[in-house]
Amino acid sequence: MAVALVGLPGAGKSAVGRRLGQRLQLPFIDTDHVIERRIGCTIRDYFERHGEAAFRDVEQAVIAELASTRDAIVATGGGAVLREANRHCLVGNFHVLYLRSSPEDLFRRLRHDVKRPLLQVADPLGRLHELHGVRDPLYREVAHAIVETGRPPISTLVNMILSQLELAGVVQLPPQADILVEPDEPASSDD
After folding, report:
1. pLDDT tens readout for residues 94-123
2. Runs of H (alpha helix) within the chain
């Protein structure tokens, strides 16, 4: 079964997903990258030209297409859970992990990020609190498990997730996967 990662912007979905894919020897798919290839521009540019609703339409189509994907790690956009159709698709077709971080930890990671359209506001920390308030219950609704991503390094998070996935019977670890140690990268890169 494919694994989907959900969570707020900066929670580490892309960085953790990439490393998890490497460790499980599975392809990693970032829905934001799939969307950008499809629309032919950055998500930020698309937001500015067409608005959030049009972006969410494209996002919904991409998630529906990825629902047939097996044996992959899929990182979703932070707002993917806003649509009920996406939530049903995620729960029915993926083992969903909610990578949860506090708004303060996210702000620390994202304070210099200019690529995320929803955070290009006068008070990004306030916006993160607002997003968390709206989205946290939706992430919890779709999640098979919650992983706190506050400050642990990527390698620690991946090891925690691997243990959870193996205990849940979702994956069988490749030989010696539990002793593989890799250098860490920032949690918010490309997420």
Report:
1. 999 999 999 999 988 877 776 776 677 788
2. 13-24, 31-39, 43-50, 52-66, 84-93, 103-110, 124-142, 154-167
